[in-house]
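User: Please fill in residues for this 146-position structure.
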């Protein structure tokens, strides 16, 4: 039981770190090039929690990271970066940004099937997932390169 709890904690930490760094850096690039209107590192209140958006994002990233830890296992093996990118596209990208958030905001699922609106979420999800899984592998292996 202790090893599962440790994995969940390490996954949470990895996800939170990946969210406030890589996810937001990708978001910054997308915002600068006008592919998205989402402002990275926003201190505006989140519609979900009322707390600053970046704080809410860090917690959500941590939750996704804990879920990734359950999927990747207590002793992760294989290409963590590739597996994480795939999990990031499926989890936070498709399920989170294209299904759950539109349901919360009462907007059309999959952003009305507009590929120009969809692909930035998939790219950000892949980057977040890749770094989350890599960090989880790094942290769970005693800080050895996975």
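Assistant: Residues filled in for all 146 positions:
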């Amino acid at each position: 039981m202790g090893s599962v709890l440790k994995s969940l904690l390490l996954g949470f930490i990895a996800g939170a770190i990946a969210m406030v760094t890589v996810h937001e850096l990708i978001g910054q690039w997308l915002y600068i090039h006008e592919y998205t209107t989402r402002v990275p590192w926003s201190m505006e209140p989140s519609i979900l929690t009322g707390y600053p958006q970046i704080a809410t994002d860090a917690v959500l990233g941590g939750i996704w990271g804990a879920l990734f830890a359950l999927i990747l296992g207590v002793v992760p093996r294989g290409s963590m970066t590739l597996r994480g990118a795939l999990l990031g596209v499926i989890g936070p990208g498709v399920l989170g940004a294209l299904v759950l958030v539109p349901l919360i905001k009462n907007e059309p699922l999959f952003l009305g099937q507009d590929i120009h609106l969809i692909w930035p979420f998939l790219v950000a999800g892949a980057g977040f997932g890749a770094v989350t899984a890599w960090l989880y592998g790094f942290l769970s292996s005693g800080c050895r390169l996975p």
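For context: The mean pLDDT is 92.
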